Structures are given as C-alpha cells and as structure tokens.
Amino acid sequence: MTSHAISFLNNRRVRDVFWQVAVFAVVAGLIAYFVRNASDNMAKAGIASGFDFLGRTAGIELPFLLTRYTPQSSILALLWAGVVNTMAVALVAIIAATMLGFVVGIARLSRNWLLSRLAGAYVEVVRNIPVLFFVLFWYFAVIAALPGPREAIGIFAVAFLSNRGLTVPTPQASGAFAVAALVSAIAIAAQIAVAAWARRRRERTGRGFPLWSSGAVLIAAIPLLAFAAAIAATPWDVPVLRGFNYRGGFVLIPEFVALTAALATYGAAFIAEIVRGGILAVPKGQVEAARALGLGPGQVLRLVVIPQALRVVVPPLTSQYLNVLKNSSLGAAIGFPELMNVFVGSALNITGQAVEIIAITLAIYLAIGLAVSALMNWYNARVALVAR
Amino acid sequence: MRTRLAAALRFVHRRLFATPLDALVTFACGWALASAGARLVRWLLIDATFRGATRADCTGAGACWVFIRARFGQFMYGFYPLDQRWRVDLVALILVLCAALIALPRLPYRRAVAAGIAVALPPLVLFVFYGGIGLVPVETREWGGLMLTLFIAVYAGLLAVPLGIVLALGRQSRLPVIRTLAVLFIEFWRGVPIIAVIFLASLILPLIVPSGIAVDRLARAVIGLALVIAAYMAEAVRGGLQAIPKGQYEAATALGLRYPATTVLIVLPQALRVALPAMTNEFIALLKNTSLVLIVSILDLLGVAQAALADPAWVGMTMEAYVFAGTIYWLLCFALSRASLRLERRAGMGR
Known about the structure:
The complex is a heterodimer. In chain A, strand 2 (159-162) and strand 3 form a beta hairpin. In chain A, strands 1-2-3-8 form a 4-stranded antiparallel beta sheet. A two-stranded antiparallel ribbon of chain A has the order 4-5. Chain A has a two-stranded antiparallel ribbon with strand order 6-7. Chain A is built from 13 helices and 8 strands. By secondary structure, chain A is of the alpha+beta class. In chain A, 70% of the residues lie in helices and 6% in strands.
C-alpha cells in the first residue's frame, strides 16, 4: 500500500507531467493577472482598445518619405512609411557595413604590421563604445559641422553633402531601368542554365567548364553594362544650387546620413572580427592539400578556402545584420522617421493606445527578424558540412 | 645588441617593406596616422584651453576643457544634490574597500565573505543612494551621469544573471513545455530592439501592476534592460551548459543525486566557469546599452553629455562633451574586455 504510493510519486512520468503543468499554470496565471490589471487600469483611465485607430487620419508630416504617404493618409499608411524607412536605413547600412567590415577584417590579417595594427585599433575603439554614441556623434558632431549648401562637398559634381544632408540626383524615367533589369534577369537565368548543363556534362564525361568566367560575364559584366547604359540613357534630375539650397534631386536628410553612417561604422567593427575569424578558421593544411592536388591559387581560394570560411562566417554575420536592423530604431533618438519614431513616437501621441502600438511594433521587428533567420538557416543548411 | 638590431631590421623589412606595394601601404598608413595624430594632439593638448571658468576663456583653436571642468560634477553625479554627493563618493569608497578585501591574498573564508558582500551590498547601496531613515531622500530623477550608468548596469545585471541561468536551464530541460516556454521567452527578447523594450517597460509596466502602485521610472528602465540582457545571458550560460560532458550527469545520477542537487552542486559550478567570459561580454554590452535609457529622458553619462550641449552658456562644446563621455565608456568597456580575455585564457589553461 505505502510502497505503491511512494513509487507513484517517484514515477518519472508523473513527476514530469506535474512539473510541466505547474510551470505552465504559474506562467499562465501571471499573464492572466497582468492582462486583468491592464484592462482594469485602461478602463479606469478611459483608454480605448482595439485596432480601429489604424484607419484614422494620421495628420502629421514626415521629413523623409519613400512611400506615397501624406498627412491625410491613415495611421496604417504612416506605419508602412515607417517600416519602409527602417528597411531603407537598414539595407544601406548593412551594405556599407559589410564592405567596410570586409576591408577592415582583411586589413587586420595583412602581413603589413602598420596596416594590421591600424585595423585592430579601429575594431578595439569602436567595439567598446555604445552604438547610441555613434548615432549622436555622427548627427550632432559630424553632419552638423559640415559646411552649408553653398560650400557643400561635391561628389563627382552630381551629389552634394552639406549640413542639410546628401542631395542625390534622381532618374526622371524608369523605362531604361526596366529594360536593364530584364536583360540582367535573362543573363542570370542563362548562367543558371549553363551551370546545370556544365554539371551534367561533368558528371557524364568528366570534362570541366570555366563556369566562373561565364558567371563573370553573365552575372557581373552584362548586368553592369546594362545598368550603365540605362544610367546614361535616362534623363537625370541633377541637384543645382539655387540661392541658399539645392533644387532638384532627392534629399537624403541629415538624420538618414548620420544614422546609416553610424550603423555602418559601428557594425563594420563587428563584421571585421567575423571575417577575420572565418578566414583564420580554415586550417592551413586544407590549402596545402589543395595545392598538392594540383589546384591553382584561384581554384584553392574558390573551391577550398571561401566555402569553408563562409560556413563559419554566415551565422554570426546574420546576427550582425539583425543587430543593424534592430539598431536602426535608434533613429528615434535623432528624429529620423523610422518605425520606432513614427509609431511608438508619433502614432502613440495621436492615439494614446500604448498596448496595441507597442505590440504591433514588436511584432514587426520579430517578423522581419524571423524572416531573415529563416532565410539564413536555409542557406546555412545548404553550406553546412555534409557528413558522409 | 647587434642581433637585436638585426632582428628589428628584419622585422621592418618583412612586416613593413617586403614588396613595393607593402612599402606604399606603409607610407600611406604612416602619413595618414601622422597627420591625423598631429591634428588630434594639437586639438586635445597644444591648442586646448585648460584654465578659466567660462566660455569666454576659451579663445584657442583647440578643445575647451574648461567646459568639462565646470561640468565635471554633472558628468559624474547628474543632478544629484550638491550637498548629498558625498553619498555617491561613500558608495564608491565602500566598493573599492570590498574589492580590496576580496583581493587580499590570505583572506580566510573568502567565499563566505564574497557571498556576504554580494548579498548585503546591493540593498545597502540602494539605501545610501535613495535615502530614507535618517538620510535626505533623493528622487531617482535627480540621479544621473556616470553614477547612473554604473547603477543601471550593475542592478540590471544583478537581475539578469539569475534569470538568465534559470532560462538557460529551462532551455536545456528534458520537459517540452518548460523548454518551449524558455525558448519563446529568450527569442522574443532577443528579437526586438532594446529601445523598444525600454519603451515597453516604461509604458506597459505601470499598466500591468494593480492600480495605485507606482513603479519608479528608473526601476522600469532597469527591469526592461534586465529582461533583454537575461535572454542574452541565458545564451551565454547555455554555451557553458553544453560544454559539460554527459558523464558528469550520469555520475551524479549514479550517486543518487536528484535534479536540483545535480544542477546546483555539479552542473552550474562547472558551466558558469566556462560561461564566465561570455557572460562578461554580455555585461559589456549591457554597460554600453545603458545609454539607451536616454530615449525615456533618463540622463546617464551619455544623456548628461547630450543635455549639456543645450546649455546656452556653453555653445559649441559638442566635441568636448562627446570626446569626454566616449573616453569614459571606452576605458570601462576596454578594461572589462581585457578582464574577459584573461578569464578565457585562465579557463583554457585548466583544461
């Protein structure tokens, strides 16, 4: 009788079920308690709930727009404008950070002592300073200290950098670009077909094919030429100084320039470390073995070093890219109208519905993050080591 | 002597001037370094103004360190009342004494002493800062500067470490419900921007507590930061947990130990030692991220520097304020990252 009771309480499955139910009950109870308090408090304060506010007129101006938003648009359109601005900042910053990070990371591995020390100093200085510092510094100390439009720094006489931001030329027609995009798509499709044919032929006959050369022509040269031709064929709206400011072109406001520059210079230090780690992670014996098999230096790099380095580099690089995306929310500190600023800032002021607004904002960041993670996991599974 | 000179020459040849391209790179880097360095030294020291009391005293082309001198108190203590600042100094002194005590080479019962300090100090420091019972109360909105940066980092860390350990254990759990809850919690906080969490904490926390209870503004920010850092800490601890060989668990089971005893006596002591460098790195990230409380108008070191720029009596002190605040952040984080490297090396040697 008693021995049965003891063995029942000591039964592993009974204990497992008990603990899981207990933990779940505590968590669910806590959440229920918070929700009840919140609905009580909101009812007392007379705060509305629900998502009807998304259809209301936003009524505020945004200083930087890539969508067709106007102050008469709905709050949903405001949200979308913020999401697009966030994506634009993150995209530009990620590209710039990757390029700078690769340069610094490779410089750090240079045989040249001075160069590698300089790159190391850059990494050590940047990594130990808050990212918000970079955003404020670029905005208040660098961009604000640039000369005014009259003495603006010209970039090939088509773009102008001043304390009012970066003024860039805009295309006035999109037809030529559509043609260029179509040509590029055809060229890339051709390369994919050639690659498939070359693989089949190699498997059948063992004969190789210079895929990299055809790729250089089909993926790089033809699209580049097509877009260069499109750039030349399109009439451009080039900014011109009129009085105290520039007319024409598109103005990347100082907040945009400062935010992207800050995210790029900050992120580059972390990417540099990732790149360095990836290159160092390929054992020397791999290179020597490839050489011994008779592969040329280019083949060693393409077939042996880069694939193995990528395997190490991609996962941390993904989380760095997500960090850049998340850090773009710091635009709120300098008034750039990205998601945090237009939604948790402006939309909250208009509606006062804190719970819904924060829930939507967090959900969007989580959704973008999950999408990028899923993409990278798929890629990672493809490049992962296949144990045979 | 001669061999050393030869070695130096060989180094210069091999590492700086091996090929013509190398020499070119060396000259370009050297020129950039020299010209930037010369400008920096001129601005920081040679052309800088050190003496004086007002903006008018700064006539040189260099930095105006008079500004930092005039504002030094604010950079350190924020708006903490002048006649109460000794309390912050006292805390700093206590901390130094405690650290010295633990560092004593032949201290008896070192572990007990350290544990006692870790338990007693946080409430004591909170009391000295906040006041009450005999001390003049100082509202948290008057706190600021470096003191607040360190306060937020330490208290958010104190909350985050135990929570992170629990989450890491939950994520490694055999039980699917517990594992799922831990994964959801960790991935949620890691997936959203920290300033969104600080907003969330400052707007939602007052809503979810029973009406009538006020949550201090600073406490909200600390809790928000702690939740995010706990998720990152959990991943650092998980790394340590994964480093423990299965045999350790099996041996503990063979000895008749249950889950709590196994975890506390066998697993965590080893896992935390392995995870310590990673946890230190998370703490560095936390220290840097305390600056984000600026977004809800809590002025830590960076916030005070930013606020000082708006003072009409000190127009144009942007560089000075940023250079000063940035240097302090850098020194703190760099020292911590060196400590983390040393921990890592020591952990590696034991294996």
